[in-house]
Design brief:
The protein has about 300 residues and is α+β, with helices and mostly antiparallel strands. The chain folds into 2 domains: about 240 residues, Zn peptidases (Aminopeptidase, 3-Layer(aba) Sandwich); about 60 residues, Peptidase M42, domain 2 (Elongation Factor Tu (Ef-tu), domain 3, Beta Barrel). Helix content is about 25%, strand content about 30%. It contains 7 helices and 19 strands. Strands 1-2-12-3-13-17-15-16 form an 8-stranded mixed beta sheet, sandwiched between helices. Strands 4-5-8-7-6-9 form a 6-stranded antiparallel β-barrel. Helix 5 links the parallel strand 15 and strand 16. The two termini are about 30 Å apart.
Length: about 300
């Protein structure tokens, strides 16, 4: 879990994922020598802060978004949300501006529906602030800010170790509505002919999806992927006896939205461990669900 702890501490709110991309580039270059297949790295001009790892002769791509939720300083002491973070008075927010490092306190005025910060000085406008990372691990669980989606990123790095054929796509802006998967999907389809996608992201604990009961395979959120593709995934999970749960919701979304609304015939499915205390500093995930997630992704990248 040390790698996951490190990922959760990297400053990469939506729109400023560059530190995460740099970390991943260094990580891949340092570890790919021990992987079963050495990937082609695609990034730079035309890809903004995204990163593609291409292994062998790909049939399927895994999308994992690098960004997190957070807050941005407006004017004076005002804060506005980046994505949909839980905002409660007393949370510690951290960041950095030209005057130095910042560790301030979030102040939520519920009556006025306004957010602000408590700090010894005024923070430069446009500065991003994120939850202070307090990574907690027990025998059964991990708890931290930004398991969504640093756990999805961690998952694909485990898959990369044995992956022979496939693509791993690290994208940006998911927490604020997408923005990169559209052009990544176009490039991947035109260059490699791939039209199958898995979304490595984290879902919610609900009345029907419980912690410790397996990785969630989503039949639908606000969108409905093609049933035959999802049923094939469920069947493969059943045959391999990988603990899993079928998720059926009427709201929510992921990088699958950009695939769904595009003009390329993508088959896609959201597969992720369920977490509690979503979008807070205390996101909680069961380790058995994490390991089931890795096992299922490894299987699917072989079988699909």
């Amino acid at each position: 879990m040390q790698l996951l702890r490190t990922l959760c501490q990297i400053h990469a709110p939506s729109g400023n994922e560059v530190k995460m991309k740099e970390f991943l580039l260094n990580y891949v270059q340092e570890h790919q020598g021990t992987w079963k297949t050495k990937p082609q790295l695609i990034h730079g001009e035309g890809f903004q802060d995204c990163l593609l790892l291409v292994f062998g002769q790909p049939r399927t791509v895994i999308f994992a978004h690098m960004d997190s939720i957070g807050f941005m300083v407006r004017y004076g002491k005002q804060l506005i949300k980046i994505g949909g973070p839980v905002a409660e008075t007393g949370y510690t927010l951290v960041g950095e501006d030209r005057q130095g490092k910042i560790a301030c306190t979030l102040v939520a005025d519920e009556e006025e529906r306004e957010l602000s910060y408590d700090f010894a000085r005024e923070i430069e406008r446009g500065t991003e602030l994120v939850f202070q990372c307090d990574f907690r691990e027990t025998e059964e669980t991990v708890q931290s800010c930004y398991l969504d989606n640093r756990l999805g990123v961690w998952n694909v790095l485990q898959v990369a170790e044995t992956l022979e054929d496939g693509i791993i796509a690290f994208g940006c802006w998911e927490e604020t509505g997408g923005g990169s998967v559209g052009y990544l999907a176009k490039y991947i389809h035109e260059t490699f002919g791939v039209t199958q996608a898995l979304i490595s992201d984290i879902t919610w604990v609900t009345e029907g999806v419980q912690a410790g009961q397996g990785v969630a395979i989503s039949l639908r959120d606000s969108l409905i992927p093609r049933r035959s593709f999802v049923q094939k995934i469920i069947r493969l999970a059943q045959e391999a006896n990988i603990p899993h749960q079928v998720e059926v919701e009427n709201a929510g979304g992921s990088d699958g939205k950009e695939l769904h609304y595009g003009n390329i015939p993508w088959d896609w499915c959201f597969i992720g461990a369920p977490e509690d205390h979503v979008h807070s500093p205390d996101e909680l995930v069961h380790k058995s669900d994490i390991y089931a997630m890795v096992s299922l992704y490894k299987l699917l990248m072989q079988k699909l």
